[in-house]
Specification:
The chain is of the alpha+beta class. It has two domains: 145 residues, no CATH class; 71 residues, ACT domain (Alpha-Beta Plaits), CATH 3.30.70. The chain is built from eight helices and four strands, in the order ααααααβαββαβ. The protein has a four-stranded antiparallel beta sheet with strand order 2-3-1-4.
Length: 227
Amino acid sequence: MNTNDYFKKSVLESFTAGNGLTVDFVVSACIAMAIAIGLGLLIYLVYRQFYGGVVYSQAFAMTLVGMTVLTCALTLAISSNIVISLGMVGALSIVRYRTAIKDPMDLLYLFWSISIGIIVAAGIYPLAIITMLVMFLLVLFFYKKKQSGIIYILVVHYEGDDTGAEVIKLFGSIRYQVRSKTLRKGTAELTVELLSRKGNMAFVDKINALPGVKDVSLIQYNGEYNG
């Protein structure tokens, strides 16, 4: 280290001493923030690749990167000064987030980003890498499992008992479970939960073509149906 570098380091240390900061802390913070950005971008790419919803939200995907970086920054700030840490606890305790999370998997990605930010800020980089790998494998596993079939709710309005039996027969090898059957003065409503492979919708047209069937509705099940 030459005289000029030593002078700059001494000035920086004396300037930051009052805030509990050191040159080593600044260097480690920059490294942690850079790693947080990189891992946040990886979470963003995983979310974009394995998103299973209908409407992809670019804004939410970008939020994952920002959440990782900001969590890392907050953790670094809390660890640098006891006064700041107490202020952070008080400030964050009054914050309320009212954005509705429609897909439970989105909540998983949010906690994933927050956890990575905290781990990186703590300097436990091997744990951050292991967490990234484990979470990626879990997301990949559930994605492959979801591709094997999609759960639907089938609602059929028809007339006649024989028509109901024909509807059940047309399911063939599709796994199903009758959720409810309602009779209204000659008209029946049959609600069935079934597991169908993606794109296999031929049975819906066959059911609709049956004599006595008034209408058929097929809804992808998301856990919010009330029969």
